Amino acid sequence: MELRVLVIDDDTIFNLMADVILRDLGITTQPQCFTSGQEALAYISQHDHADITYLLFLDINMPIMTGWEVLDCLQSMPHHHRIHVVIVTSSINRADQKAARASKFVIDYMIKPLKRDILATLKSHKKIAPFFLANN
Amino acid sequence: MFREQHYSDIFQALPTPCVVVLPNAPHFTVINVSDAYLEITNIRRKDMIGNGFFEVFPTNPYQNDTIWRNVFDEVIQSKKTCKVPPQKYAFPTADVPARLDMMYLEVVNTPVFDDKGEIKFIIRSMTDVTATVHDEKFFEETQRTARIGSWEVNMAHQTVVWSEGLRDIYEVGPDFNPGFRVLEEFYPDANARRAFEEAFVKAIEDGNVFRLTLPMVTAKGNDRWLSIVGKSDLVGGTCVRIYGIAQDITDSKRLTCLDDLEKTVLELIAQPNTSLMAVLSTYILGIEGLFNGMYCSILGVQNNRLVNWVAPSLPEVYNAIINDIPISDNLGSCGTAAYRKERIIVSDISTDPKWANIRDSALDHGLKACWSQPIMNAQGEVTAVLGIYYKQVRFPNPDELIIIDRMSALLRIIIENRQNADRAREAATMMAQGQELARFGNWQLDLETNRHTWSPVLCDIYGVDPTVCVPSYTNYLALVHPDDRGRVEQLVGQIFETHQDTVFEERIIRPDGEVRHLRSWTRLVMNEDQKPAKLFGACLDVTESKQAELKLKQLHTQLEKHLKEVEQSEQKYSDLFHLSPQPMWVYDLATYRFLDVNAAAITHYRYTREEFLSMSLMDIRPPEEIPKLKASVEQSRHYDRLFFKGTFKHRKKNGEIIQVDIQSNIIQFHGRRAELVLANDITEKLYHIEAIEAQNNKLQEIAWMQSHLVRAPLARIMGLIDLIQNCLSPGIDHDQLLRAIHESAIELDEVLGDITEKAEQINLTD
């Protein structure tokens, strides 16, 4: 059982920061970063195993394909019950938050920049907690 | 018994015709009859004995039925032997019963008394005087036939010769010597004499034919009319003789005069203004002029009494005596005639029992005979009696009886006509008041008897007890309100002067103190002689209506006040509509037409009032809005009190489209279902709203921008700094991170600049 973590954000610097923090906190050893939703979706469809559970860190505000659109596309994917999304956005708009949590994929909503203590708490989220018991 | 039979045999053998009857009027049963009687009358004994006299002889063709049936009256009344002057009788002949033998008989009715002095039976005996009468009759006949006679006056010898015929006409005997004094002897009429003299004188002068029609009196005192034609013979200018003929034209003349008189009288009746008495008087005088020696009177029937109407030639004193006598049997000819409703002939007042009581009054004035004819109306009631008096004992001949019939027929017409006219007039008067009389109190004053009558309703109105209060003028005045008394007295007095109907209002005070208002009518009615006879009056209690009148006046004043207030309030409401700063109008729900529009609407839409009133709702809409309009009006039509609100596009006169907020209510406007509309031009407002909404959108954009575009570089900077501070990963280049921080900061700056720009843009909207 593998938890594969994807970071989807059009900001490369953010992706860089996310990569460092995620490793640092032990959430994943190999985060995959994508700068567009399409790329991420393509990767998921190509690497779809019954053993793999995906954890996505998804930005909302992206050109070409927004985070909302990605969520919509995930809906039509097979095995989508094995996809969990954490919305990461710089928006402090409450409406966005509400809309995000409404989606069944979304397990959390974070505001940039990513904070270590919040990420740490994520590890105990019931959907993904089983993957971290062994590690820590 | 034996003796009776003996007497009976003798009686039957008597040469004089006799019949014995019982005095049992009106049958007069025959108990015995002589053979001579049977012979004359040609009746069998058995047909007479035991039957009533008038059964055997119901009529006498030469006598009036009434007179015939009364043949025994005299003897019964007077209880004395009565001699009936020779009368014509007719009996069937022995051989040919159809043929009648005419004879003159003198009849004697002899009463036979019993011990008590009552009449046991009457012996009626007759003497045949035919022969004697014939001689006398001969003269009468010849008088009738001898209608023309001739005469001659010899001027030379101063002699006058009359023919036989002329003597007959003049009714002079053979030894009568006609002389020049003929005028005075036979022509009592002064005018006749003068005419005669003039004609004669003229004839002597010019020898022409003259014609005269003159009334004369014969030697026997009979009135005649003669038509005289005469001519004179002139020799050498001197008249030697005058001769001519005279014709008795009495009958035709009299008939002509009678016709004329009747015509005159009928014309008089036709004129409504002539009084009955005047007409009757004219008629009587005319009759008396035609029949010399006749004195006529007409008595009217009133309350079952005979009242003197006209008797122009009878003495006043006598008229006074027979005035107002009760109608009863055997009270003079007139009284009896009215009572029995049949003609009564009394040829001799001195002997007739009917005149027993008042005989002397008549005889004192030289009245010796009286013939009375009752005048009946259509219902068979006696309305008047015609009385014909003579100063001689006289029995009417058949001609005179015919005259009496003729007179009575005409009198009947005259009287009925007049009475109907009077009755009609009275009825009309009554009827005019009749319907109202039911609620009127009415009173009557008979001025002749001074009798007052107050009707029960009147007593009611006056509030007096009819059994206690005596109707009188004084009592009435006492009831009149003191303030009105003077005026009332004056009005009543005026009636007698003006004879005009009077209407007036008065107040009375009832005995219990209550004041009532009355409306009173009074009328003066005249009698035949145009003298006041009766005063009629009626009055109506109008108190309630008078009070109602006053109340009505009050109400009227109040109403006027209210109306003023309503007017003012209406004005206020009118002002509300017309002076409202918001455009308002009223339109007809059925036709969409504008019914009224206020000043604000006129100003706003730029149409004049006249234009508006000729327009309909469609005209202030842009065409595309009309379906919407129709739909909303349809809604209004279905509801009664609908407050409607909605926004519509309207079009002003200049074509400008405006947005209008409509508020309306259903009302009744001058009888039509209409809608009152308040129009609020919200074009500006909407524009402002749009502007504000645009602003809002901008602000929302800003807010979004702030949350996304601003924050993103900031979040990046924060993350990077954190990374620099805390992450000691070797793969990370600090320079790279610092450069990233610098770029983010610049990005942030740019975004802020954008925002400011956008914010400035908001203020520019207008």
How would you explain this protein's 3D organization?
The complex is a heterodimer of chains A (136) and B (766). Chain A has 6 helices and 5 strands. Chain A has 136 residues and is α/β, with parallel strands linked by helices. Chain A has one domain (2-134): Response regulator (Rossmann fold, 3-Layer(aba) Sandwich), CATH 3.40.50. A 5-stranded parallel sheet of chain A has the order 2-1-3-4-5, with helices on both faces. Chain A is globular and about 35 Å long. Chain A starts with a strand and ends with a helix. Chain B is built from 25 helices and 26 strands. Chain B has 766 residues and is α+β, with helices and mostly antiparallel strands. In chain B, strands 13-12-11-16-15-14 form a 6-stranded antiparallel sheet, with helices on both faces. The chains are: A alpha/beta (136), B alpha+beta (766).
List the helices and strands and how they pair.
The complex is a heterodimer of chains A (136) and B (766).
Chain A: E1 2-8, H1 12-25, E2 32-34, H2 37-46, E3 52-59, H3 67-75, E4 83-89, H4 94-102, E5 106-111, H5 116-122, H6 129-133
Parallel strand pairs in A: 1-2, 1-3, 3-4, 4-5
Chain B: H1 2-13, E1 18-21, E2 30-33, H2 35-41, H3 45-48, H4 53-56, H5 65-69, H6 73-78, E3 82-92, E4 100-113, E5 119-128, H7 130-145, E6 148-154, E7 159-162, H8 164-170, H9 182-186, H10 190-206, E8 210-217, E9 223-235, E10 238-248, H11 250-270, H12 276-290, E11 294-302, E12 305-310, H13 316-322, E13 325-326, H14 332-340, E14 344-346, H15 359-364, E15 369-376, E16 382-390, H16 398-437, E17 441-446, E18 451-454, H17 456-462, H18 473-479, H19 482-498, E19 502-509, E20 515-526, E21 532-541, H20 543-579, E22 584-588, E23 594-597, H21 599-605, H22 609-614, H23 626-638, E24 644-651, E25 657-669, E26 672-681, H24 683-726, H25 734-764
Antiparallel strand pairs in B: 1-2, 1-5, 3-4, 4-5, 6-7, 6-10, 8-9, 9-10, 11-12, 11-16, 12-13, 14-15, 15-16, 17-18, 17-21, 19-20, 20-21, 22-23, 22-26, 24-25, 25-26
Helix pairs in contact in B: 11-12, 11-16, 24-25
